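User: Hi! Is it possible to get a structure for several chains at once, not just one? Here's what I have:
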Amino acid sequence: MYNVLTREAILDAALELADERGLGAVSMRAVAQRVGVTAMALYPYVGSKEALLDGLVDRLLASVLPDTVGDGDWRERLRQGGQAARALARRHPSTYPLLLSRPAVTPDAVRVVDWIYSLLLEAGVPPREVPRLERLLSTFVLGYATSEVNGRFSEGTLNPRARRAQLPADQVPAHRRLAKWLDDPVDWDAEFEADMDDLIRLIERAAA
Amino acid sequence: MYNVLTREAILDAALELADERGLGAVSMRAVAQRVGVTAMALYPYVGSKEALLDGLVDRLLASVLPDTVGDGDWRERLRQGGQAARALARRHPSTYPLLLSRPAVTPDAVRVVDWIYSLLLEAGVPPREVPRLERLLSTFVLGYATSEVNGRFSEGTLNPRARRAQLPADQVPAHRRLAKWLDDPVDWDAEFEADMDDLIRLIERAAA
DNA sequence: ACCTGAACACCGTTCAAGT
DNA sequence: ACCTGAACACCGTTCAAGT
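Assistant: Yes, the chains can be modeled jointly so their relative placement is included. Here is the combined structure:
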């Protein structure tokens, strides 16, 4: 360790900081301190703070790539890919939501898209439909994992009674009809599997 | 206009600021200036900046609600709801992505969820499956609209040649096979409609 | 060539002070 | 009761200066 300052070392430090203390703690000054330098020394390597965040997104994509080789038929590989995407969200909850806000244009991003394209072609989806279904799949998986780590689902669903209590029952008639099922705790792994099964059937139908 | 300072007036100003100059321009000081007061005067009304952002999310949800009455059968109402969600994203591109990161616990959020629940019940989905399919639908629609306004789709897809050029062709074989279709411009309205049709079939299958 | 220090124009938030 | 001013501990970024 000769303490060489590199773009890689800076991105490592920024990702660690985001994992440990949240995205809000990722300031140029804090990242710089972690690599033992002043904030201004980072600029030649990362350009700007925006570019640094883009670099983090690329890091995440690069780290799912090994999980996208997989074996088995396309159904099995798709399920594995979905699980990899969710696992990534749990490892990097603060950084993960950025995947939905920044365009997938880096080499590693293109590789991931290509992996999904291959899968859909193997499934027999007409080539014309492949780009659309890739966007449908990736949007759902990224959105679901983002919702999970951001608490969009759990916060409200874990307390359905409190939720309904905010409103007169006649204003939320469907909640009342579903009361029995809304009180059950949700198995998120099982729900995601069920969603993937539904999407697999959607793909099979597009292929037919 | 007696210049009364209210929570509503503050949220109005913040949303305008976000629409005109982006979420980054929404500082306590800038919002305060717009309502003609100092930053500290806002605190009794909004609590903190985080709470102010939650207030903005609620504002967006409140503004889609009128569009969720709708007529026709559940298929037509679902399509209308999806279009309303996309239109909202185009009106408030900076604020919209917050919908995926903050739990839907406010009264208006619960009303929107209840509207989707009703739709799925009318479609004949077994009550046990309704909450899961609500999350599948809302996640996809929010994720798709977020991706559109954030440029996750268009940036890369509008320039497919540049995209493939970054990598040796043998590393992205599926891109090569799809070259003919990737060069076509995408009709995003039509694509979203096709996605909704696929999701409607998915729901019909769950109801069968 | 690579890094630093000082500076500029900002942040969110606390708190005593004003009216 | 409601708002302000000054202050604290921060930001991202520029730029001249150091080695």
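Residues 27-29, 39-40, 43, 48-49 of chain A lie near DNA strand D (CB under 10 Å from a C1'). The domain at 7-47 of chain A is CATH 1.10.10.60 (Arc Repressor Mutant, subunit A).

User: Great, thank you!
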